[in-house]
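Hey L., structure's done. Input below.
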Amino acid sequence: MIGELVIVSLCTIFVQAVSNEYNNKRQAIIDAENKYATGGHSFLTAKESQANKILLSLKNQSISDGIINPDSYAPGMHFFHAKHLIDSSDIFKIIKAIPKGSVLHLHNVAAVSSEWIIKNLTYRPEAKLCESNGNFFFTTRISHHCPKESVKSIQQLRKENGTEESFDIWLESLINLKLRNPDLMRRSINHVWDEFEQMFSALKEMVSYKPFFEDFHKQLLKEFYEDNVLYIELRMSLSRLYDENDRTYDEFEVAKIIGKLVESFKQENSDFMGAKIIYSKHRGMDNKAAQDQLNTFANLNKDFPNLVIGFDLVGQEDINQPLSVFMDELQTSQKSTAYFFHAGETNGYGSAADLNLVDAMILNTRRIGHGYSLYKHSVLWRAIKSKGIALEVCPLSNQVLRLVDDLRNHPAVFYVSENIPIVISCDDPGFWDSKGISYDFYYAFMSIASSSAGIGFLKQIVWDSVRYSSLTTQERQQFSQTLQARWDSFMDELIAGKLIANDCV
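Output:
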């Protein structure tokens, strides 16, 4: 009997030893991966560790609920379906309160909420609408593509077409993909891009009217500042403006107007660090036009060295000119021009659009816009990581423009796991019923980051938005001090339960 007990005890000890060895090995692998990933090396203060427990408790509960009810789990849903769920979530309330540092990938014409444009600009007496070849365009004047017979006052149209509310919804659908056509979630990439680019065309002339342009960009700064963004790098074409006397303003005058607007906003909001411009032109042009635009950038940069700071080519990569077409012109200007190229915004592998990534790196791009297909290139992603080139990841843009359906399958999951530098941005939020950058931060945190990623992940992407910005060393130091004060205040509010109901933590 005693012998049997000894044998049982020895077996129990052996099983426990084997079990402990398994658990130790398993945990060691998990811990190593977590430390290696984005945010894994972030040092957490005692206050941040306390806040981390609150945030992870909410995150883990949300994930558990999502396993039971996947049909209502916002991080796995298309934004058009999930927005109302996100708006009501405690995690989103916390995300909105985060001081987000910088937005480094943003196209100005699509940056302002469509609701503000409709409720504000289109209620002004100058606002008009014209129809041409089945497409609608906002304007304030008669022009070559909007002849007199096709131009109508929006105020008058609003009186003639049903209720004010229903007319405004239709009007907003001209510049909001979510309202425009819900079936876009299931259409081809080219079809969605056609609709997307039509919205730029629909809005461009109205916001080229100087009084509207100025108020539009004041609202842009206001919306992002209210979303706790303290610095912005805008992709802008600096296209000509016109005023009520039909006087035109060239790129240099437009840059000067933007500079004054930014300085005025900084005076009103002392912790706002400002905005700079990445001069951006459509990649559909020919080589001569590309050289002309590079020359224009050089002159703009000379006249406004702390405002117009870089150059980019924009437009759908799959169907437009790749960077290789402009290689001679781009290499000639390489030493004097800071490049911030869109590259790899495609599902292709080895296609011309995909290989823009190779050319962007050869041209020493400072950052890469999207870099969606980079994970397919084992040599290239390692080189980009080694060179410290950050990817401007825009989760909602990639989903709405049909690169990915479920953001948990976004390539940025891989970039996070490999700690490849990323900055979270929002691209064109006004065109898909978003506002600011909080929705993109939500998906980055809930869909792209690991289930175990908390304050450390958020801390790194916030500070990396400063690190990979185009600010000078002095500006970056000042920004870091301002951001740290904001961050500490955010920690205090989260711990004190001021951001969500106390019974939720």
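The chain is about 50% helix and 10% strand. The two ends are 53 Å apart (CA to CA).

-- N.
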